[in-house]
What does this fold into?
Amino acid sequence: MAKGNEKKHRKSVSYAKWAYIFITPFFITYILFTLIPQFLTVYNSFFENYRNGLEQVGPNFVGLRNYIQLLTPDKNGTIDFLRYLGNSLAMWIAGAVPQFLIALLLAVLFTSSRLNLKGQGLAKTIIYMPNLIMASAFSMLVFSLFSNVGPVNKFLIDAGILKEYYNFFATKISVRTIIACMNFIMWFGNTTIVLMAGIMGIDQSLFESANLDGADSVHVFFDITLPLLLPILSYALITSMIGGIQMFDVPQVISNGKGTPNMTSTTVIMMLNNYLGISKNYGMSGALSVLLFIITGILGMFVYRSLAKQYKD
Amino acid sequence: MSDVKLINIKKVYPFTESRKDQKEAKKTNLQITKEGVVAVQEFNLDIKDKEFIVLVGPSGCGKSTTLRMVAGLEEITSGELLIDGEYMNDVAPKDRDIAMVFQSYALYPHMTVYDNMAYSLKIKHTPKDEIDRKVKEAAEILDITQYLKRKPTALSGGQRQRVAIGRAIVREPKVLLMDEPLSNLDAKLRNQMRAEIIKLRQRINTTFIYVTHDQTEAMTLGDRIVVMKDGFIQQIGTPQEVYDHPRNLFVSGFIGTPQMNYFDAKLIKENGKYAVVSDGYKVVLADDKQERLAAKNVEEQDIILGVRPDHIVLGDKGIKGKVDVSELMGPSCHLHMTVGDKDVIAIVPTEGKAVDYMGKEVTLSFNGSVCHVFSKENEMNLEF
Amino acid sequence: MNNTNKKARISLIISRILAYGFVIFLCFMCLFCFLLLILMASKSNSQMQGAFNFRWGGHFMENLHNAWNDFSINIPVGMVNSFIVAMTSAILTTYFSALTAYGVHVYNFKLKNFIFTFIMAIMMIPSQVSAVGFIQLAYKFGLTNKLWLLIIPSIAAPVVFFYMKQYLESVLPLEMVEAARIDGSNEFRIFNEIVLPIMKPAVAVQMIFSFVSSWNNFFMPALLLTKEKYKTVPIMIANLRSADYSKFDQGKVFMFILLAILPVMIVYTVLSKSIIKGVTSGSVKG
It folds into this structure.
């Protein structure tokens, strides 16, 4: 009798199989819709494969030619990939500098027990809001406001500051400024909240003992808050940078996908988008993606490390 | 109506992350083999129907692991588990007809007390009115009827504990398992709940297996107690047996509070009678001890002599000691002394007189029926 | 009164005033764009041709009517498409991420550590890397203009997994799962009836985030959805820009933008508290 039961109930006390059952949907989906496409992307990068009008070229194996083409200067002596990467980074930096400075200041103000600011909940709600607005809609809004016939131009002419309308989208500096400002508005609230959580995670007694030791708020900030906040700050900074490299929606809509003026607002992802558009240039877009993967991968390693460290503690 | 049989049960936790686990394991005294850490081994126990068994021991002794194997929450590495004669090793917990009360209560926070208690019955598709009757009955027994509509977060620790017990008894399980159910409560509530469990036991007919690290709980609750250490059973017996005849040094020290006192002594044989000599003080052992020692033909040797604090009396002849601290406990007085290089505690009745023992030299004596003789070599009680 | 104390008080008051001023300025900046949008959406095209002012235009309902019934940009269809994609993605993402996190958290199995490390690692891979292969496959198998193709991939969301895993670690004692097992529940039921309700706060937060990011998603849908009747809102908004912009009724343009962001704004005003909590706990170990 005992033997029969043994067979019937074999291993039902072991639960490991349930783990596999529960994680299976996730992994099947991941393999089908992410992993296989990722391999295909890498695979494509070694092929010539695009459409020229109605004519399909390739796929022909070309080795590293796509990469070489991406990284060799064209007849004007510029490397488009690096140029667009530079565009992305320039616009990211212009937005990220005020974003992080103001977020840091706000986080310190909000967490200061001496100031004890009221209405923080409401303030946080408001400054986080732009982060949730559809980037393409926000871009369209800004474009409409600053367009030649838009209210900003009208207002400036009425006020006598401008004689005739100013085309904000025709000069490099104004387009980049507008995009950087939008990035700033969209992200400083998020950064504030992340940094606040970081500050509040610091043992409060450290601040108290520093105060009793006679440190003023400037010293407390530089000697205690900043060093202890560094892991989270660097985490936020690197994720923000990865986001900056992946910038797409805002410049795409603002410049109508053209990177006007003169490709100075074209980002790497816009370049990818152009390859994937009508020409369906899987070869070049594959190579571009791989380069992008390598760059973000290196940055991601830093994030992963700080995250893993946090996780282990 | 069920007996539980554990035959040569063994549990090995295999190493998962080789190095880290091994390091952790080395900190304990558990045996480590190639397969992993041996948490429990050579566990043999026959639990009779409706018996109240207490597994007791210090943390890491394998008592909870054993309980969890009975519950089906841990796989049994080898050995056999029989409930009512049926082989249960690989049966899922839900099919074992057992219930369990957890240390952290493990109440479902999103359900009301009623739903918490009704959950297992609902899963078994018990008719609604029967669920209702059973839940209310259990609530009545545990005096939690007025909390049935509350969520666990709105209850105090003691009330949560009652709900956890209630959840276990509504099912009328064959075996009720309790894993340190009282250790999250404060001292006062713990005493109260202990009494409740004794009462509960009289009202419901089921087999209990109770795990605790607290020897007081073990002594007061158990029909039999199983003392464990480092994965091995040290002794099985009624509380009285374990208290009076501890099998080895560990059991003698673990059961009983304050702890048993130990003296370096010699076992000698004079005129065919066994006696112990310590510090020149000779005590002839009682007749029952004589018989057992003689039956085993124990030879003269150096021994560890154990005497419980309450068996020590102050007299004229005996072992000399100096009182370091004297604690007045009301009816009695605890004297902390140093004898040789050992700490010794004696409990002496005050009998209404206030005697200041602090700093005094005293003489400790005891009779031959309260002496426990342990081998110096293997720390076993020589009587066994 | 004590002089040092007085000085300290005054400096505190001044720094408070400065701090409040700074915070209020930033809040105003964030609200200003939004308020300006509502204002502009109330003006008729001809009002906008004239001088700019901050007066309410009074053509709000008219613009709404025109935008809603526009024949070239079918915003109601776009909103329905967006809603279907965002809602189902949100449900699938949270359910399966929670399920996966539960599987990794509760059970001991051989690949446990490997799987956790693996998911942590793939979390960092930008989504664009798979885009090329994804688009190629979609075109090859004729799966363009299929909304489900945007929905199903959301089952595997490493970031949400990570959040759920952290949450489980903080709220779910293993004893609870064991209690349910002994109560007779099977593993699926334990997850659905015991664990999921306990995870409600985390599920709510992730559903909102997932809904919002899906609602706002532009890159992939723009490459996959080419037919008008399948387009989602962000594509339609971007189309406004590509169309001959200056010929467009400006009131209608602002109304389109307002409609595009309104659902998220409504969700946000109702649930802002838990959203902010979610940002906080998602960023650092809670």
User: Anything to note?
Assistant: Confidence is low (pLDDT under 50) at residues 1-11 of chain A. Residues 71 and 264 of chain A are 18 Å apart (CA to CA). Residues 13-65 of chain A form one domain.
